[in-house]
Design brief:
CATH class of the largest domain in chain B: Alpha Beta
Shape of chain B: globular
CATH class of the domain at 12-23 and 35-79 and 92-159 in chain A: Alpha Beta
Low-confidence stretches of chain B: 314-319
Number of helices of chain B: 12
Number of strands of chain A: 8
CATH topology of the largest domain in chain B: Rossmann fold
Order of helices and strands of chain A: EHEHHEEHEEEE
Distance between the termini of chain A: 6 Å
Radius of gyration of chain B: 19 Å
Structural class of chain B: alpha/beta
Number of strands of chain B: 10
Distance between the termini of chain B: 14 Å
CATH architecture of the largest domain in chain B: 3-Layer(aba) Sandwich
Order of helices and strands of chain B: EHEHEHEHEHEHEEHEHHEHHH
Number of domains of chain B: 2
CATH superfamily of the largest domain in chain B: Aspartate/ornithine carbamoyltransferase
Largest sheet of chain B: 5 strands, parallel
Mean pLDDT of chain B: 91
Largest interface: A-B, 18 and 24 residues
Strand content of chain B: 5-15%
Radius of gyration of chain A: 16 Å
Largest sheet of chain A: 5 strands, parallel
Low-confidence stretches of chain A: none
Helix content of chain A: 25-40%
Mean pLDDT of chain A: 91
Oligomer: heterodimer
Strand order of the largest sheet of chain B: 1-5-4-2-3
Number of helices of chain A: 4
CATH topology of the domain at 12-23 and 35-79 and 92-159 in chain A: Rossmann fold
CATH architecture of the domain at 12-23 and 35-79 and 92-159 in chain A: 3-Layer(aba) Sandwich
Amino acid sequence: MTTRTVLSSDDIDRAVTRIAHEILEANTALQKSGTSNLVILGIPTRGVLLAERIAKVIARNEPGTDASQLLGRLDITMYRDDLASNPTRPVTETLIPSQGIDDKVVVLVDDVLFSGRTIRAALDALNDFGRPRAVKLAVLVDRGHRELPIRADFVGKNLPTAREERIRVQLTESDAENSVVIES
Amino acid sequence: MIKYLLSAGDLTRDQAIEILDIAEGMADVNEREIKKLPTLRGKTVVNLFFEDSTRTRISFELAAKRLSADVINFSAKGSSVSKGESLKDTAQTLEAMGADAVVIRHPASGAANVLAHSNWINGAIVNAGDGTHEHPTQALLDAFTMRKRIHGANSKGKALEGLKVAIVGDVLHSRVARSNLLLLNTLGAEVHFVAPPTLLPANPSNWKAKLHYSLDETLELEKPDVVMMLRVQAERMNASFFPSEREYARIWGFNADRLKTLKPSAFLMHPGPMNRGLEIDAISADSPQSTVLEQVANGVSVRMAVLYSLLSGERAADV
């Protein structure tokens, strides 16, 4: 097995910062100022960590941002379409900011965008919590091979891959280092 | 993952904690405005009830519906069973109709076991009470209720180490007592049975539990964290096990005076249905220390977790 590092720790930081700014920029097109209409939901496990990082950058750059109203997590286990063919997965917690997601701009955050099935499940899950004004998608790595008509609005890095290759995202909150590695 | 839930003793500690943790997530769903998940869409769950039940059947039905499964309720009354159809024929009929899971309650001990090991049915099987034998989902929901009372929002991943549970009353006829004993042992709790000798099994020596023959003494000396009152199962009593109901209520019933002797942190459980005035009086049943209604609410979450665990990934197991 060969491994190749495609994003270093600094690359990840830069990508996260850029995504955060792009989210803010896109948001001002919908609302003059402030982030009161914005909700950032991470998809477990590493999407949650990335969402936390993005929310931190947004809170730093946009005075008056209430981080607790900005950040949440969305567990999509129960909405997957492959439950019957895979071993039972543990269910984790879903946390939606207390203001809810009705009429908000929801940004879903995940680490890798691949088939698009996770995001489809996330869209279904969102449906059960309310009716957002818009849903956007931010991912650290877009590796292609989509099986559904889904695309990301904010991408850290586009990474053409072969289907058999594996992308491993490591973040210091849960792993030894910050890096994105291709294994083939 | 498991395909049958027949006995609380079949679960390892990790499996039991996993189900309780999943139930935690299901409890969150039950708080939502839209209390429905698409998880078991297209699956059929049959509630096969040969014995009367309110909360268990409704609870399983609600659990299956909240997971988007199709539910068929079968009760022996009003079915071909009253014409003399056997369990085998009933089971094979359900199999032919494509049931993915069968939840069975039966007055004969071991009925769920027969169903599971007979090859009459390919789907998952949940024992929802078989005679005086076992009722594993009740034990799971009781453990879930205890964990929630003690650890609150931080319940995930926790067991019940060191918890002192007194189970009081009609142990002899109680499947709830048996399943609770097995699961509480697995989760590390200490079980005390408190009952008149006539309502204990003939030879309980292989049970990992302490036996007591006086409720007041046990409450005073052992200071239990949890007191679980069992229903006096008059319908299973074919002889006289105690002199009179009034005497039973006085010596073995939980009442306001006994409630005062409990530790403030201790709580009172009852699997229901309650015989008010017999094993429990109204004041203690409706006190804040009673978890009766919490147990019912938690029952739905726990049964959702059980159905999810049994039915997800089942096709992979067949391959």
